[in-house]
Amino acid sequence: MLKAIYEPTIAALERAFVVHKLWRAADAKAFIAEVAPDVRVVVTNTTRGFARDEFAQFPKLELLACFGPYVELIDLSAASARNIVVTCTPDSTAEPVADLAMGLIVAVMRRISEADRFIRAGKWVDGVFPSGREVHGKSLGIVGFGRIGRELAKRAAGFDMTIGYHGPRRKSDVAYRYYDDLHAMAQEVDCLAVTCPLTDATRNLIDARILQALGPEGYLVNVARGPVVDESALVQALSNGTIAGAGLDVFRDEPRVPPELMRMDHVVLAPHMGTSTREIREERSRKLLADLDAFFAGRAPTYAVRM
Fold first, then answer.
1. pLDDT value for 307
2. Is residue 20 part of a domain?
3. Which residue out of 166, 225, 281, 284 is catalytically annotated?
4. Do residues 82 and 105 both lie within one domain?
5. How far apart are CA 293 and CA 298, in angstroms?
6. The CATH number of the domain where 28 resides is what?
7. Which mean pLDDT values do the consecutive 10-residue runs of the chain (307 residues) have?
């Protein structure tokens, strides 16, 4: 195992297999050199992946199992060249990620995290907590209108928010206003929510220019990937009041979060927990274990990735 995953899944794996935990090794390189000659299966996850040069470290590797539905960070061509089977755990993550996005919108605009700290610090007896902003009736611009964006729109509609979206093309089945110009949308909305995938085209898509357009009364929420937002520009925009606040579930160099963000009261931080629900983790665990059982029994895994 390359990285820690859901603890009950690790426990189940340890009951059935010999499990080597790379993340606990003091010297990762030496640890791999020691155990790799006997390793037939590597378990990774969607944020860790498996790079081309890592395949050479595991001469007996037969199966690469990903705990999660996305395999973009796995070099599938290298796996195919070695005839290594790659599996994943497909599931529906749009709904819980949209739940979290809506929660971050409410939390940052109503200043919920700040209010919690205000009470815990004993400040309520000495004064009144500063007011936040209403969510009801405000406008929301969604960057990327795939499954997560659509689910977020449903939730925002429940708050009577005016909804617009930006993406590479207009959706023929969507009645919300489409902006082909992200800058124009940022100028018009109260909150900008980022739900698009990370690609070459979306890297640093939310830059200083977009943040300037969002303005001092605007809020940014990111539940996509950290590098979609120019993090340096965001820190500066939050520091100098260019925007009003931010709700962030993802960061450029996770799990390392810029200290400046951690010191800001008008920023709500979450540890990339959009898909971290018990229900999703248990579903992924069932699929991972079923595929490993099938593999070691000589059967084809159910959730093998086509390469």
1. 81
2. yes
3. 225
4. no
5. 9
6. 3.40.50.720
7. 95 96 96 96 94 96 95 95 96 93 98 97 96 97 97 98 97 96 98 96 98 98 97 98 98 95 98 93 96 96 94
Q: At 139, phi and psi to the nearest 5?
A: -110, 140
Q: Based on the fold, state whether residues 38 and 102 are members of the same structural domain.
A: no
Same domain assignment for residues 117 and 261: yes
The Cα 230–Cα 186 span in angstroms is 15
| 272 is a catalytic site residue | yes
What Cα–Cα distance (Å) separates residue 170 from each residue in 144, 164, 166, 175, 208?
Answer: 11, 11, 8, 10, 25
Q: The dihedral of CA 38, 70, 205, 110: what is its sign?
A: negative
Residue of 82, 77, 75 lying closest to 44 (CA atoms) = 75
Annotated active-site residue in 14, 34, 217, 254: 254
Q: Assess whether 144 and 283 both reside in one domain.
A: no
Q: Is residue 98 part of a domain?
A: yes
Compute CA distances 205 → 202, 220, 302, whole Å.
5, 13, 37
Is there a single domain that holds both residue 172 and residue 109? yes
Cα–Cα distance for residue pair 62/83, rounded to 1 Å: 7
Say if 55 falls within a structural domain. yes
- The reply to whether 245 and 129 lie within a common domain is yes
Q: Within 10 Å of residue 81's Cβ, how many Cβ atoms?
A: 12
> For residue 189, what are its two tokens?
């909305």
Known catalytic residue at 254: yes
Overall domain count for the chain: 2
Active site residue 225: yes
Q: Which two tokens stand for residue 4?
A: 């820690």
Range(s) of the domain holding residue 104:
94-269
How many residues make up the chain in this entry? 307
